[in-house]
Every structure is written in C-alpha cells, then in structure tokens.
Amino acid sequence: MGQDQRRPAGRSVVRQAFVTSIPVMAGYIVLGIGFGILLRDAGYGVLWAFAMSLLIYAGSMQYVGVSLLSGGASILTAALTTVMVNARHLFYSISMIGRYRDAGKYKPYLIFALTDETYSLLCDGAAPEGADPDLYRFLVSAFDQCYWVTGSVLGSVLGAALPFSTAGIEFSMTALFIASFTQQWLDSHDHTPAVVGLAGSLACLVLFGPENFLIPAMLVITLTLTVLRPRLRGKGAAE
Amino acid sequence: MNVSSTHAALLVAVMALVTMLLRFLPFLIFRGGRQTPAYISYLGNVLPQAIIGMLVVYCLKDTALTAAPYGLPELLAGLAVVGLQVWRRSSLVSILSGTALYMLLIRLF
After folding, report:
1. Is position B52 within any domain?
2. Reported ipTM
3. CB contact under 8 A, A73 and B11
4. Using one digit for the tens of pLDDT, what is the confidence trace for B47-94?
5. A189 touches chain B (CB under 8 A)
6. Is A44:B11 a contact under the CB 8 Å cutoff?
7. How far apart are CA A194 and CA B47, in angstroms?
8. What's the rounded Cα separation, in Å, for the pair A31 and A53?
9. Which residues of chain A are within 8 Å of residue B20 when distances are taken between CB atoms?
10. pTM greater than 0.90 (yes/no)
11. Residue ranges per domain, chain A?
C-alpha cells in the first residue's frame, strides 16, 4: 500500500468525483454551447455567457433568459418567470435538507449548485468509501458547473462553426435520468415513491399539457406521498 | 442589443437571485434546531425516487407520439438505457450507449 501513502488523500476523492460527473459532461458542454450560441445571436457576448452560467447556473432558465434579454423584459417579468421555471428546485432542496445539514463550509455552494443533473447524481446519498462525503459532493457539483461554464463560453466563442452535427446529444440528459431511475429502482425494496413520481407526472402531463404540468405534478407527488406516509414510513426508500 | 446593458445586467441579477432564493429557501426555513422534522426526513427519503421519475417525464414531455417516428427513437434508446443499467449497473455505459443509439436512430428514422 506504499503507493497509497505517497498519494495525498484528497486526490482519490477528486478522481472519484470526476468519474461520477462524467455522465453529465457531454450533455452540459453541448447544451452550454447551445446556450452560448443563442445568447451571442441575441447580441450578448462571451462575458455575458460566462456571467450567466456562473451566477444563475440553471440550464432551462438560462435558455428562457435569452428571450427575456432580447425581448427587453421587465424586472418583475424576469422574477416571476424565474419562479415558474425553477420552482422545482424547491423540491430538490427539501429532499436534501437532511443530507446537506452538516456539510459545513461546503454547504452554501452545494445548495447553490443543485441543478437537475447534479441532484440526480447526488440524491441517492452514495459517497465513496473512506472519502469525506461533503468534499466529494462539493467536487461533483463543481465539476458539473465547470462543464456548463466551459460549454457556454465555447458556444459564445465558436458560434455555429462546429464541424459536426451534435443533433440528439441532448438525449444524454434524458438517459442520465432514466439510468438514475433504474438504479434507484434496483436499490430499493418499495417502488411506491418511484411509481408515484412517474404516474403522477404522466397524469399531470396529460391533464395540463407539456408547458404547465410541472407545478401540479410536484403538488400531486408531495400530497400522494404525504397520504401514503403511514404505509411507507420506515421501509422502502434506500436505507 | 435591445435593452441597455444596465437593464440587461439587472435582469441577469434578478434571475440569479430568484434561482438562488428557490434553492436556499427550504434550508432557511428548516434551519432552526438540530433535528430535522420527521416529516421532512420522510420526504427526503421518498422524494428522490419520485423526483427522478418526474424528471424522466419532464425530459420526454415534448416527444411527438402522433407523427413519425412516433417517439420510437426515445422509446428504443430509453429501453436500451434501462436494459444496460440492469445488466452492467454502470451509469456511464448506459448513458453513453443510449445517447449514441438515440443519435443514430434519429438519423435513420
């Protein structure tokens, strides 16, 4: 084990966090490029792309933000639109309260950087053996944001001059969620929460349509799981 | 540029602040006391699986089922991801293969 002793303890955490973040890399870079291109076409260059991806760091909101900027939206419109598009983040944070409670100095960034994709990488609570779980989660979050910022800047600088067609690569985000869903299914004994999430969302999609289903879906899921609490408590969900 | 840089910077600031507020709000509300309320712990336990299910639906919400190719690329690539995940248990393998298959399928159909 001499090799391990020579190596600083931090390095393997960095490596493991990097490996965990790889599934997000392609999607974030490509979607970031798409955002950078859109923003540049709207008249806002690389500094704007960099600032937005650094400070807002919410994929679909930034795409919407491009039209807010180019349409000259009011401050109030921008605020309300952000609430509508990003309300689901409330949901992620609620489910991470226990896990991030004692994350100390990493906590503010962990909360700030809780995107859909980072959430799906970290919500099962798994962390490598022997590593500081908070440091590991911090690094996964930071790697993900690096990909997003890099993509945005690349898109702004390169423009539409990419030499190959990347059509369809956005499916990597869908694939990430399907893989997470499958893995959580395999890891849990009681599949009720998974079924509630899937069925509740599908029902709301049919009822409210693709533009408006997310908020009703979140309410239906929360209410259903609340009603089922006496039955689900203490069993089922991973540990 | 259709609006002044100052106004644009304000818009970006508002989007950033509201997004941050949404992410931090639950943590600010349940800051007091060392013990997370039992109901919130319960939600933290069951919500992740439900949320990921919701995100799957969210990603596929704009799939056109009534016109060619009738969502077939999404269906086949999605099934491939599930199958590979069950078989190999490696998210990386499932995601990369599923995405490659999808990119191929949308060029074939």
Report:
1. no
2. 0.89
3. yes
4. 889 989 998 998 898 898 888 889 999 999 999 999 999 999 988 889
5. no
6. no
7. 8
8. 11
9. 112
10. no
11. 2-169, 188-239
